Amino acid sequence: DTGVSQNPRHKITKRGQNVTFRCDPISEHNRLYWYRQTLGQGPEFLTYFQNEAQLEKSRLLSDRFSAERPKGSFSTLEIQRTEQGDSAMYLCASSIGTPYYEQYFGPGTRLTVT
Amino acid sequence: AQTVTQSQPEMSVQEAETVTLSCTYDTSENNYYLFWYKQPPSRQMILVIRQEAYKQQNATENRFSVNFQKAAKSFSLKISDSQLGDTAMYFCAFMKLLYGNKLVFGAGTILRVKS
Predict the structure, then answer these.
(1) A33 in contact with chain B, both atoms CB, cutoff 8 A
(2) pLDDT higher than threshold 70 for residue B37
(3) In this predicted model, what pLDDT tens digit does every residue of A40-60 receive, in sequence order?
(4) Which of the residues B103, B104, B110 would you substitute to probe the A interface, choosing the one with the greatest number of A C-beta atoms within 10 Å?
(5) Spatial separation of the C-alpha atoms in residues B89 and A67, rounded to whole Å
(6) Is the bond leading into B41 cis (omega within 30 degrees of zero)?
């Protein structure tokens, strides 16, 4: 068990560019979550997958954001036409669900939009 | 919608002493979990402790314990024998047991342990 991994760890991009982040959950975890954390704040929920199905999306997830989890394994989060307001830490977490529901977090991808 | 409030932006404690971090939440749900997560500087978030709302007994994990007051919707974290490695941002989080189990976080409390 190597924990949740995320790549890249840091991404600097210019406004208007597209970026894609990857999350590899703990192998036996069927639930995968994306959160966004801005400086000095708690993480905010973006979206949730159970296996390959995306079951919930936050209103924070504008049309420029898309997430996938093909085959219920790793997940990608893509942001199109990035804006400076997208600058944040993007966290991925995974969970096995019942009975304890604990979510295990990855190290995050820090996005800076210039 | 659920909300989580952490009213202490920053706390400090001397090494080996005890500190309590406060958390209140608002929900109309009856079945939920509460968590405390720790985020050390520039490091990833790790789970400190979990409390199931249906359990009256307060959860404990080594030096960490909670005071769960369901009627008051209060969930404080007590850290005993504080260590320098406890220096971190601490987040209180709420999870209802339906619809995907997403976490709703408070704004966090920065805890500094001083030697």
Answers:
(1) yes
(2) yes
(3) 899 999 999 999 999 999 988
(4) B103
(5) 28
(6) no
